[in-house]
UniProtKB/TrEMBL annotation:
Keywords: DNA-binding, Transcription, Transcription regulation. It comes from Ollibium composti. Coiled coil: none annotated. Belongs to the LysR transcriptional regulatory family. CDD domains: PBP2_LTTR_substrate. It comes from the Bacteria. This is LysR family transcriptional regulator.
């Protein structure tokens, strides 16, 4: 038996629809259905009447609901009480974040002297977008930090989650340089010229979909020829520095390389996209330090209009 099965059951109780509940839990419908069946096998009785639409609870399901709610609340309350009993000095706030944000954004952000109890004791799990979402959905971390754009895929848009904007970044198109500092590749090359392209793996998904938004703006078809894929922005950056192709990267990742003349931005403003940096958490009981951090971020957002907390140079004009 897993805690996630109980939370899955409470989601289907709330929505009475398998596809909606699966979306709220950020898993596929077949996987969600398998987990409900696994819970029913553990209980030893069917909890969901699947013959109706919307689905209804069986007699056993109706009996199970209040105890299930109580157990989930008690488990999370127990975890919070244990963490608090261990003392503030031993508590760690657990984060999951995209690799780029874990490397280039998180250290300065978490160490900001304006934080309520800086330095905050924390642990970090770096992962791709889908794994970050899974970590938060399954309760493996307190917070995730990821990119977000209104026209991009929805990030935890349904379910018991809330978020705050904590920064801004920008996707920019870059190329390696030749011995004179000029770009090795240019979008204004003669029509028909093939431009080697470094792309995000579809396993990452999120930044790749935002790049597709940018490409749709270009005045003519981009003659990009895929030569390399990776889910790691840092790996794509090193390939660009090595002269292997052009790539869209978060500016926070490449600003130093651009300043040092290793990379150059190409394509102009039309080939960029401003994106938010957001922090997400599950709604519900949290540790004392987690609550303090969240309330602090809410106050900061209210005072400064959720403006970026990253280097002002990230905002292009």
């Amino acid at each position: 038996m897993e805690l996630a099965w109980f939370e899955d059951f409470l989601e289907i109780v709330a929505t009475r629809n398998f596809s909606t509940a699966a979306a709220s839990r950020n898993i596929s419908q077949p996987a969600f259905s398998r987990r409900i069946k696994a819970l029913e096998a553990w209980v030893g009785a069917e909890l969901i009447d699947r013959s109706t639409y919307p689905v209804h609870l069986t007699n056993a399901g109706n009996m199970f609901v209040p105890r299930c709610q109580e157990m989930v609340r008690d488990i999370y309350r127990l975890r919070t009480d244990c963490r608090n009993a261990a003392g503030a000095s031993s508590q760690l706030l657990t984060f999951a974040a995209l690799h780029t944000l874990a490397i280039y954004f998180f250290p300065n952000w978490i160490s900001n002297p304006d934080m309520p109890s800086a330095p905050i004791n924390s642990s970090m799990h770096t992962a791709d977008f889908l794994e970050c979402v899974e970590h938060l959905s399954s309760g493996k971390c307190d917070f995730i930090i990821t990119y977000n754009h209104p026209d991009g895929p929805r990030v935890l848009g349904a379910g018991p989650f809330e978020s705050q904007q904590i920064g801004k970044d920008r996707l920019v198109l870059v190329s390696g340089v030749d011995s004179t500092g000029a770009p090795l590749y240019d979008l204004d090359a003669p029509e028909g010229t093939s431009i080697p392209y470094l792309a995000y793996s579809w396993s990452d998904g999120y930044l790749g979909k935002l790049v597709s938004l940018i490409q749709s703006r270009w005045r003519r078809p981009l003659n990009l020829s895929l030569v390399y894929q990776s889910s790691l922005a840092e790996g794509l950056k090193q390939m660009a520095i090595a002269g292997r192709g052009v790539v869209w990267l978060p500016q926070i990742c490449v600003q130093k390389s651009i300043a040092q003349g290793e990379l150059v931005q190409i394509g102009g403003q039309q080939m960029t996209l401003e994106i938010e940096i957001r922090i997400f958490r599950r709604i519900g009981a949290r540790s004392r330090d987690g609550e303090i951090l969240w309330k602090h971020l809410a106050r900061v957002a209210e005072q400064v209009g959720a403006r970026s907390t990253v280097d002002p140079s990230l905002t292009l004009r």
